Amino acid sequence: MVTVVINGKMEVQSIKIDPEIINRDDPEMLETLVAAAVNEATRKAQDLVREKMGELTGGIDIPGLTS
User: Fold this and answer.
1) How far is the CA of 63 from the CAs of 3, 9, 67, in angstroms?
2) Distance (Å, rounded) from C-alpha 16 to C-alpha 7?
3) Which of 4, 33, 50, 57 has the maximal Cβ count within 10 Å?
4) What is the Cα–Cα distance from 24 to 33, expressed in whole angstroms?
5) Is 64 left (phi over 0), alpha (psi -120 to 50) or beta?
């Protein structure tokens, strides 16, 4: 319904909203869906950054870099 793309710098690259979910009488639902999509995209981007940094550091946890 709502898709958000975020890069490794946690910058929003795009937001796509299915027109069928837009309801002028219930803007709160759309706001909730957008917030949830942004949070999910951020979590996935952070997970991917941790995974890639783990590969680069050989699994060593470097505070501030991988966590």
Assistant:
1) 31, 18, 6
2) 15
3) 4
4) 14
5) left
pLDDT tens track for 5-49: 999 889 999 999 999 999 999 999 999 999 999 999 999 999 998
In 3D space, the residue among 40, 35, 2 whose CA is nearest the CA of residue 20 turns out to be 2
pLDDT at 20: 94
Q: Are 42 and 54 in contact (CB under 8 A)?
A: no
Closest CA to 50 of 63, 37, 33: 63
CB burial class (10 A; 0-12, 13-18, 19+) of residue 67?
A: exposed
Place of tokens 């639902």: 29
Give the dihedral of Cα atoms 28, 31, 35, 38; nearest 10 deg. Answer: 160
